[in-house]
Amino acid sequence: MSAPAREGNVIPGNTEDALTVCVLDDEPGMVESLQETLRCLGFGSIGTCDPQFALEVIEQNRARVVMSDIKMPGMDGIRFLEKALQKDPGVYIILMTGFYSHENAIVAIKRGAYDYIPKPVDRSRLKRSLDELADSFHRRKRIRNLEQQLLSDLEFHGIVGKSPAILDVFEMVRKVARHYTNILLVGATGTGKELVAKAIHQMSPVAQQRFAVCNCSAMVDTLLESQLFGHVRGAFTGATETRPGLFEYANGGTVFLDEVGETSLPMQAKLLRVIQNREIQRVGSPEVRHVEVRLIAATNRDLHAEVLAGHFREDLFYRLSTIQIRVPSLTERLDDIPLLVQFLLKKYDDAYSKQIQGLTRRAQAVLLQHTWPGNVRELENVISCACLTSVNDFIDVDDLPDNLKKPAARVTNPEGSWRPLPLEEIRRQHIRRVLEMCAGNRVRAAQLLGIGRTSLYRFLKRSEKNGASAEASHSHVPAVKFLPGT
């Protein structure tokens, strides 16, 4: 029969400054003896003979350390260790045994135990272990306080980072915010280009004016034109009233055009007119209206290559990229992941009314090993989901998405095993792909390749000649005749 739980010298709820130990043993006399020892050593304690009650203590965060006997009826110490770590990966379990051996100690430590001590418990050894844990908890508290201060110091208008790559972005934003008219933000999807755009607006002289956002890739041309320039009543089917567009709405402020590289050539011509003359026309109206807006555009494409391929207007590109800022990917700023995780944990703790203290070491290792193709947006989604679903004080590997726990193997050559190729063949394949991208336009292909047109013509002529020679040589190979039955 399990003895009732007994608490001694313990502050309810377990504060950061007090280290409370839960003592679990199937012998009530041993529980009381160990609690008395802990009291003499200056530690609070909760004693019980019931493993399920001890698991509840862990779940309620009333004790960060548990001293558990190995031999217990119903649930032995190893099984209790597994269940305890499932409930809270950050809990520390000290296993006690009357049959100590180095081999068993190693097995216990590998399974997640903090220490493995023989009975009767040596008071000096126990004190040393608990003092180390108490010191570790206090150091973590100081580190968390310092990290909170550091996080506050390193936050730049909602953007967090301390890596050289992101600090360069911050410095560039400070330099141009007060003087810009047009800015182009370049970076992969999910890097935080809109946050950078907002920071530029907030530091500009028009910070008190409106900041309007338009995702150019989310609309067809007709809808995008109406969204940006407005329309008059009856301009098209469904236009039941006259509406101003974003340029009029944000007149005096800033317009942010996200994914501007997705716009069509006709729409680019209309955007060019706005940039050059600061004039717009509502759809269906001949009236020209003057607007005074600052324009920030963003793209995840290489617009210079798009210009060479004929997919983006050269004059618009140069107008937009008067000032160009490149926003780095998350793989270029891996040092910022711990800061970003802390920032996002605080954000979603408040949003979901949680009190998650951090990530376990193995969860941190998984995050640092991931390639993050979705950049900061992907990291935010991971932390948001983990905060929502986690029932522990620390996010563990089991709380992370499957693609992080079991990353897909990299395929170097999906068409088959890798084989070495001559440099001439690699060059030929690359030039062929560039020509295909440029729809056969050799002038644009030469510009994109960074070579002269004559060099490209010479290479193509040589390739055609080699191809004809190869075809001729194959035509002289005699056909193989198969005899019946072979």
User: Roughly what fraction of the amino acids lie in strands?
Assistant: 5-15%
Distance between the ends:
86 Å
Could you say which structural class the secondary elements and strand pairing correspond to? alpha/beta
- What shape does the CA trace take? elongated
- Please describe the biggest sheet, giving its number of strands, its sense, and whether it closes into a barrel: 6 strands, mixed
The number of helices is 19
Mean pLDDT: 83
Low-confidence stretches: 9-16, 408-416, 470-486
Range of helix content: 40-55%
List how many beta strands DSSP finds: 19
Rounded radius of gyration (Å): 33 Å
Q: Output the strand order for the largest sheet.
A: 1-3-2-4-5-6
Task: Give a nutshell description of this structure.
The protein is 47% helix and 15% strand.
What would your notes on this structure say?
The chain is of the alpha/beta class and 486 residues long. The chain is built from 19 helices and 19 strands. It has a six-stranded mixed beta sheet with strand order 1-3-2-4-5-6, sandwiched between helices. Strand 14 and strand 15 (288-290) form a beta hairpin. Helix 2 (51-59) runs parallel beside helix 3 (77-87), helix 10 packs across helix 12 and helix 18 crosses helix 19. The longest helix has 32 residues, at 123-154. The relative contact order is 0.07.
